[in-house]
Amino acid sequence: MNRSKCLLVLTAVLLAMPVGLFAAGQQDAAVADRDFTDNPWTDGQDLSGRRVDVFGAFVDEDARRFRESMRIFEEQTGIRVVYEGSGDFESLITVRVEGGSPPDMGAFPQPGLLGDFVAGGEVIDLNDWFSMDYLQQQYDQSWLDMATMDGIMSGFWHRANVKSLVWYPKGPFEERGYQIPETWDELIALSDQIVADGDVPWSIGIESAGATGWVGTDWIEDILLRTAPVEVYDAWTVGEHPFDSPEVRRAFEIMSDIWFNEDYVLGGTDAILLVPFGDAPNALFEDPPAAWLHRQASFIPAFFPEGAVVGEDVDFFYLPPIDEEFGSPVLGAGDIYGVFNDRPEVRALARFMTQGISTKAWVEAGGFVSPHADTPLDWYTTEADRRYAEIIRDADTFRFDGSDLMPGPVGAGSFWTEMVNYVNGKDLNAVLRDIDASWP
């Protein structure tokens, strides 16, 4: 074939190539020409083409938003982050770790399970990867305390939610001239004023099928943080401080001042066990409100009537402190990421995820609160999310849901069932002794 025919054939082949294939070739060439060492996370190494596997419990929209939040890391490092979510996370992660094939990272909604792997020597101590100075720049000390298990930095936090909230019907509340309470005494005074005005202050419902009782455990935890040193709370969650103690007994008694006051609770105390927890806030939306106050976490708007707008139809305030000496603590929850494999690309992703930039896309999408100290408040696109973040940031102490830190037979067993028994009239001393007796 002569040179002119060769050129004609080559031209024909190029013209026949799909445009997308040609463009893909250009993109591959562009990627190949990129410098993947100029980023804050790989320590000057080119780690492009490698992958990190992350396994967690969140799925669907949350999984999509997580992947979006990883995009900036992937683009700047060339490392692929592969996320797998499963509603069966707890059992599957156990099978994989015990079977010798753990993911590179696990996103744990309950630190207690991560603690089991720490005890088994399966989790990498992040103290070996990051200096304490660095970690203290990225997180408030409370988050580092909660991640420290047996002296090991067991993981890093990447999502938070707030439980220390009281919800109220915004318009009617303001029309009545009620004021947001800033102390527990003011909260009780507000409850008394609502009763004096002929209404019922609190809507409380704890029915949750096989999990009935968990709502009550949150109340006890919130109150204990407000009436005892945080060291007592921490010891209590790991079985080193008994339920049958003056501190925990007082928390139950303070809760009882509200729960067992027939004038305070919609439907009376008997209704507490019958009303599903997701239906309890509905009383705030009636016209006029059937009740005025409801204590529940930042997830509860998902159960509000369709079209309800936080900040317009309903609003919230921080559950106020009780004893001044313990400041303004916050009870909450979140996702902690434990690391199982030590490779350069895994270290790079861990460094990225300990920085606020790793949450930016998710924060801006809404419904997400970052635990990172370097996440600016102006990234939040809703007033509610911004206020949740401020509550966490302003907390004197932040602690994880205590029942989630306890062994399953207690935190998801006797603590729940004895809360139910207590509401049904069981003696408090017997309740506390029986929970202690169930500790494995």
From TrEMBL:
Domain of life of the organism encoding this protein: Bacteria
Primary location: periplasm
Compartment(s) of residence: Periplasm
Record bears the keyword Transport: yes
Keyword check for Protein transport: no
Signal peptide (UniProt feature, chain positions): 1-23
Keyword field: Signal, Sugar transport, Transport
GO CC aspect terms: periplasmic space
PANTHER family: ARABINOSE-BINDING PROTEIN-RELATED (PTHR43649), OSMOPROTECTIVE COMPOUNDS-BINDING PROTEIN GGTB (PTHR43649:SF29)
Protein family: Belongs to the bacterial solute-binding protein 1 family.
Name this protein carries in UniProt: ABC-type sugar transport system, periplasmic component
Gene source species: Spirochaeta africana (strain ATCC 700263 / DSM 8902 / Z-7692)
Lineage: Bacteria, Pseudomonadati, Spirochaetota, Spirochaetia, Spirochaetales
